[in-house]
Amino acid sequence: MPLHINTPLLESRPLSLAAGRSIWLKMDALQPPGSFKIRGIGAACEHHAKAGKRRFVSSSGGNAGIAVAYAGRRLGMPVSVFVPETATELAKALIRQEGAEVIVHGASWQEANERAMSALDADTAFIHPFDDPLLWTGHATMIDEVVAEGLSFDAVALSVGGGGLMSGIVEGLARNSLAHIPIIAVETEGAASLADAMEAGQRVQLPAITSIATSLGARIVSERAFEVTQTQSVDSVVVSDHAAVEACLRFLDDHRVLVEPACGATLALAYSHMDALSRYNRVLMIACGGATASLAQLQAWHTA
Ligand SMILES: *Cc1c(COP(=O)(O)O)cnc(C)c1O
User: Fold this and answer.
1) Averaged over 85-105, what is the pLDDT?
2) How far is the CA of 254 from the centre of ligand 1 (A)?
3) Does 18 sit in the ligand 1 pocket, CB within 6 Å?
4) Which family, according to UniProt (predicted)?
5) pTM of the full structure
6) Of 290, 289, 2, the residue nearest 134 (C-alpha)
7) Ligand 1, from 132, 136, 159, 263: best to mutate by most atoms within 8 Å of Cβ?
8) What's the number of domains the chain is made of?
9) Is residue 202 part of a domain?
10) Structural domain for 97, as ranges
11) Looking at the domain assignment, is residue 1 inside a domain?
12) Of ligand 1's atoms, which has the minimum distance to the CA of residue 289?
């Protein structure tokens, strides 16, 4: 049995009314560790466990670290998550709650990641948060589930950080003979490494991440994500942090599910960026979730 669950697929009445077209939600916010990441990370961890690895290491102080911790607990494997001093108390608590060890090291992710790399040995599998084909194959199960339910759709809207989710959705579309379906790739201002790469015609490194949507905070997208934009129809949309947070709060009222701004960015297409959907009649939105934002935090961002 895989480590992820088969999530609900809902036609959202409130989002459809707001957007003026049919909006379907793949509710991966309801995965046990709170985000879609367990699909790919669960698949990768199972792969490494079968191959004889005895321990997992992650350097994500966000949903990837939480997903590795969850997978390790389920598989009975010890997990160490190296996080920078900037990691939130909530994220660290969620990782520890899964029984994993949290090692705080360095001012930024780069330093935490270097320390994680120095902790690897032959028995240890390092689980990357987005740049690994094993992850993409796992994320692709989202599209398998949607297709199995018989839904047809004319676009997929999703959030982009390092591009693992997008790479996985593209793989899922391809293996279901849907490679022609366009992707709407959403980022926030200050984390728009894909939009910048598409504009420049090559991958570019952002000088810093300035968005509150830290789960989208990859300074450079993966090679695979950029390649997808060259071979597939990808519309890039960038929304403000404010629009993303507002979408989270409206979504909480509309669907009674709390998600991070990383997910709110995609939901904001329905609430405040309908123009980005104007060419489509039935849009599949990946409600990717995220466990690291509390209601108090969303409200504080909203009034900031
Ligand atoms: C990781 C994450 C993303 C971005 O996924 P990438 O594979 O890095 O593009 C979006 N939303 C949430 C909630 C995430 O945890």
Assistant:
1) 95
2) 22
3) no
4) Belongs to the serine/threonine dehydratase family.
5) 0.97
6) 2
7) 159
8) 2
9) yes
10) 38-129
11) no
12) 13
